[in-house]
Amino acid sequence: MSDAELREWAAEHLYYEASTLEAAARALKPRPKGPMESLFLQSFVVNARCLDGFLWGGRGRRFPDDMFAPDFCEGGKWEATRVDCPQAGLRAARDRWGREVMHLTRNRISGYGEQKQWNCGLVFSELATALMKFTELAGEETLDAKTRDYLRGLPGVVFSLGVVGGATGAALTAGTAIFDPKIVAGGN
């Protein structure tokens, strides 16, 4: 893609993924229960997975048209920088999002236990930090000012929501809910 096409693509698609991730985190913050928690969690996971692939993935034969952060940066700079980005929450999520959100597998976690919880706050924080660092390396010609400014501001959103444990407040966690399908469908 040309630099102009990269700018246009990022202004629409990268901005969308990041802003939808933020919206899902905001929706999860008050801890909705039941199907709404699952709905917002699924949105969060889908967008987190997409951004994770953008930041840490690489070109391959399976998905040759996918876009990656290195496409926007001078050769090798993002790959050298991303190794220093924290990924503990993302590593835990990567082990789960395929089998628990994207695919109907027998390996899904059952019940209500702590193991069903996703540390959305940590995942959001790690993605926000990485996206901010990405903006420092993405070329002016490949990333428009609106998208750059938005991505740079995401760590502030994480802080303002207080979604990470420790000094910044209660952790934002969510779990897929167990609910009676008859109630959701309006049955008895």
For the biggest sheet, the summary is:
2 strands, antiparallel
Total domain modules: 1
Output the helix-strand order: HHHHHEHHEH
β-strand amount? under 5%
In spatial order, strands of the major sheet run 1-2
Descriptive report:
About 55% of the residues lie in helices and about 5% in strands. It is mainly α and about 190 residues long. It has one domain (about 5-55, about 65-185). It has a two-stranded antiparallel sheet with strand order 1-2. Helix 4 (about 90-95) crosses helix 6 (about 120-135) and helix 6 runs antiparallel to helix 7.
List strands and helices in order, with pairings.
Elements lengths: L2 H26 L6 H22 L20 H6 L5 H7 L2 H6 L14 E3 H18 L7 H17 L11 E3 L5 H4 L4
Antiparallel strand pairs: 1-2
Helix pairs in contact: 1-2, 1-7, 2-6, 4-6, 6-7
Keywords:
8 helices; 188 residues; globular; disordered C terminus; mainly alpha; two-stranded antiparallel ribbon; 2 strands
Summarize the entry for a quick read.
The protein is mainly alpha-helical and 188 residues long. The protein contains 8 helices and 2 strands, in the order H-H-H-H-H-E-H-H-E-H. Strands 1-2 form a two-stranded antiparallel ribbon.
